Amino acid sequence: MKFEEGLWRLLPDVEAIYPRTITHVSTEGDALTVSGYDHEIWSRASYLHGTLITVRFTAPMPDVIRVQIKHFKGRKPRLPEFDLDYEQNNTDVEVGSDENESWLKSGGLTLRVPNEGNWHYSFYRDGALLTQSEMKALGLFQKQGHTYMRDQLSLQVGEMVYGLGERFASFVKNGQSVDIWNEDGGTMSEYAYKNVPFYLSSQGYGVLVNNPGRVSFEVASHHVSRVQFSTEGHELDYYIFGGPTMKDALDQYTALSGRPPVLPEWSYGLWLTTSFTTNYNEVDIMANIERMEASGIPISVFHFDCFWMRELAWVNFIWDERNFPDPEGMLRRIKEKGIKVCVWINPYVAEDSEMFEEGQAQGYFLQTQTGDVYQVDHWQPGMAFVDFTNPDATDWYCGKLKDLLDMGVDCFKTDFGERIPDDAVYHNGADPVRMHNYYTYLYNQAVFDLLVRERGEGEAVLFARSATAGGQQFPVHWGGDNSSTYPSMAETLRGGLSLGLSGFGYWSHDISGFNDTASPDLYKRWVAFGLLSSHSRLHGASSARMPWLFDEEAVDVLRFYNRLKQQLMPYLMETAQESQQHGWPMLRAMILEYPEDPTCRYLDTQYMLGASLLVAPIFNPQGDVTYYLPAGEWRHLLTGELATGGSWRTEHYDYFGLPLWVRTAQCPPSLANVVVPEVAL
């Protein structure tokens, strides 16, 4: 949200109040509170007709400081709030003052504020300035009849900003305006399915704006030497995670917001789907599974997309008997092959669904201001929204899913959850604007918790599209509706790298693109990228993604990389433990592993798979690739070549190769024992 026109003027129809003078600094237990007045004090008359903004600093855990800014303390809290661990007992906190300033110290992170004079506050790490809110950074604004609170944190020269969820535009966020507002927009724009109001700095710290509703970020754009964030209302709440490295900041952030859980080993294998709108029945499905087996390409999970239910009735959770007359028997036959079963669901109920009247009668759907069921004609005719703030509605919805689990289903693809109305009435009275992003948290939490209860911890897994802060606790997430082009393959990777720097440990994407149909060349290049991700799924829109539909060589390529991933499984499971223990992503931006290397700050067409394996996908039909090999000693996993890094390399590969390098200094035994698969069956 923009408020000012450069340094001197406000934008039209904007009024601003800035705290200018520190009037009071106090300590209460382990908190430091500062009051800022919007007048300069010349006499007692200066204390009349002014505005007071109060900032309370606390330290919920070592190296973390919370900043709570309020105007009008009498306002009631708005629901929902992020499900953060607010109750941590931090014994490593110190509050003090001298004649000039006051401070709050938590581990190596310190907040300092002058006791009087001009308004500002600063954050230091181990004595060095990290970032600060300077004069006129904090403000209360009136714009078009709405009130907003905003703060700005300074950036150092050369400082880069990352994260803010799964974003498909430029990997480095400097110069961008980002609204944290979930949308079903595909992967080709500034809209995103997974919006997270958390960013990481190349200086090794992170910032979470603690508001599940719309948060507007101006990253080195509206004010080019600051990150600005604003929310509607009379308060602003955020956390500084002091690092000192980006990995440390992720560790601290996910300790507060939740870490990815252990996933079953079978989830890391190859997922094959019916695809979106293709025609299929049990005969077709079993034929495809058997041909994959005969081709030496075992699959771990078979997924039924939306047409496992009859048309216009999504969701009713009833198998379409025209195509699946014996669903229990079919599921049993698939599972006898050692394959798990996933089915598509969403949180909406069409009015032609058998569930609609039941949900309406019980009050299980979101309502309009007049008490009607909130319905739209977007995805399905007369579609209603399950109200997950109602415990009875959640139990009702999950009860339908339990019937499917009892039938033999193993997991769910929790699709949708983005286009949630911002004027609906919720059972618990929640603010519908704050619920827009948070709806997906409750939706995925409900389904994941059901799987934990029914399948046990370590066996629960989703395939989810939408998310916000904390959603990393309900994995896996996939990248949404990409397209069958090389540029879309690259934007998909950018989204995954940004999501990883937002606290999400696991990630997947539709191999070869969801929309349209890839060329055989693109399919084979994307297969290499897809099988070198934490989770791997073949899925499309109007056409299926079996390899023989592209060309015979595609069968060999898919077999090769599927076997390679099986060889990498011990290493992947070790890497997954780092996600579970620290919140570090399995698929990592180069900057996360090489924070001191300035070249790695911009790299978004290559990545580290865990700490030891560098992957550079190929994004053109010529098979050429230019990538950066950081300093150190490296071994090519596929060719055995040894190289010393610290330079750019340009190479050419056929479909059975790509830059895949092991850091020899950090090579675990699980990588040392990898055997390159044979190309032939």
From TrEMBL:
Enzyme class: hydrolase
Record-annotated Glycoside hydrolase family 31 TIM barrel domain positions: 260-573
Catalysed reactions listed for this entry: Hydrolysis of terminal, non-reducing alpha-D-xylose residues with release of alpha-D-xylose
One Pfam family here: Glyco_hydro_31_2nd
Keywords: Glycosidase, Hydrolase
GO biological process: carbohydrate metabolic process
Keyword flag NADP: no
CDD domains: GH31_N (cd14752), GH31_xylosidase_YicI (cd06593)
InterPro entries for this protein: Alpha-glycosidase_related, Gal_mutarotase_sf_dom, GH, Glyco_hydro_31_C, Glyco_hydro_31_N_dom, Glyco_hydro_31_TIM, Glyco_hydro_b
Entry EC no(s): 3.2.1.177
Protein family (similarity comment): Belongs to the glycosyl hydrolase 31 family.
Protein name stated in the entry: alpha-D-xyloside xylohydrolase
Protein encoded by which gene: yicI
